[in-house]
Structures
1.
Amino acid sequence: MHQDFYNLEEKYWWFLGRYKIVFSVLNGSIYIMKILLIQPSQENVYGVVVKPSYVPLGLLYIGACLEKASHVVDFIDLDIDGFNENKVLGYINETKPDLIGFGSTTVTINNVLKISGLIKNTTDIPIIVGGIHATIAGEELIKNENIDYVVVGEGEETIGELVKALGNGHKLSEIKGIYYEDRSKVVFTGDRALIENLDNIPFPARHLLRHPFDYIPPEALKAPVISIMTSRGCAARCTYCCTKLIFARRMRFRTIRNVVDEIEDAVKNYDIK
Ligand code: B12
Ligand code: SF4
């Protein structure tokens, strides 16, 4: 049943996208973009391709915010979806996205840079990198000739403003939380304030996953299973941990109602046990 739902949605995806574009143009907002989000391979970490056991929530939150702003979003998780570098390049040439966004950690950044280099060999599609590595090494990353924008920290608000600015030519310098280059000069616009009300963030766009049930956490006793994030931040200060650099040490919580709504949504749409 779920497979049917996904096939159906895949089949009508571009139709839905076009419909949204027409609607938005009629609405007067003409910066609708086709955006491809990519979760890089973690092959570097383990020496072989290992299927991740948890969904990439960060990119799914970004996807949800972009869809809320009427953009057309596509998503590939290289390891789960079985895309190698050549296949992803072929897919990009075929589908021609307006923008590409990568998630990153320090161990996956080399894969991001390799694919970005291949993309830039044949296209001039702008490339954005977000995630933990982008947050801790943004200045170094933006100096890479194949990366156009780096998003630092929580990305939900930043990505909306950045895509809007790229669409309508507004000033990048006014968007908090990004690195870009202005005539070869690195510009950092400064840290963005944390999102105070987590309930305002849309639920992760799980429908973008091509194989939502292939992520199987080792602790799961029943399938299908999903992971849900109920709070952000951690008060501890373990020296090796980067969590504080994205979500800070002050804890923020979603309301119980909001979390239960997400669980109910998952039970209804994904038959979660
Ligand atoms: C769950 C988790 C895992 C899971 C799943 C990872 C996954 N598929 O995403 C598993 C168990 C598989 C895992 C594995 C590993 N993990 Co881990 N993991 C986490 C954890 C606890 C939560 C990640 C998460 O879902 N966060 C929630 C989302 C909402 O946050 P986010 O991903 O940061 O996304 C936000 C922003 O970063 C940004 N953003 C993210 N991507 C993008 C993309 C764009 C285009 C934009 C604009 C913005 C943007 O916007 C998002 C929303 O605000 C973090 C710690 C933490 N609290 O973040 C460690 C963490 C990411 N893991 C870490 C490590 C070290 C590892 C491993 C290397 C461990 C190992 N030795 O095997 C592996 C490598 C995995 C990999 N692919 O890189 C480190 C990474 C440090 C670093 N410098 O890169 C972290 C930060 C913990 C720590 N020790 O500091 N991990
Ligand atoms: S490892 Fe990171 S998230 Fe876990 S308790 Fe320590 S500081 Fe908090």
2.
Amino acid sequence: MLIVALMGLVTLSALAATYPAWDINQDGVVNMRDVNIECMAFGSFVGSANWNPACDINPVYAPIYDDTGKIIGYDYKTILGYGDGRVDMRDINWVVMHFGKVYK
Ligand SMILES: [Ca+2]
Ligand SMILES: [Ca+2]
């Protein structure tokens, strides 16, 4: 039982050890390899031949509605998650903003 519990902790720690989403190839460094992977998927969307979900990394923010249901802004403190279903300059921008960072 203890061994099973320890194996679970090891698995959880392995999952937590992944690098940020903008390190597209997850090698611990943000460099031209990541930009190149983004470029290969550029213009794609879910279902495209060159679609790569790892490249869809722009955060999606929660819209703020007024009483009529009209969007009046976005709550940047409430990130709903990554990805909007397409790879465009917003995604490449996130890689470029972190270019040169080393995480390992
Ligand atoms: Ca990388
Ligand atoms: Ca995107």
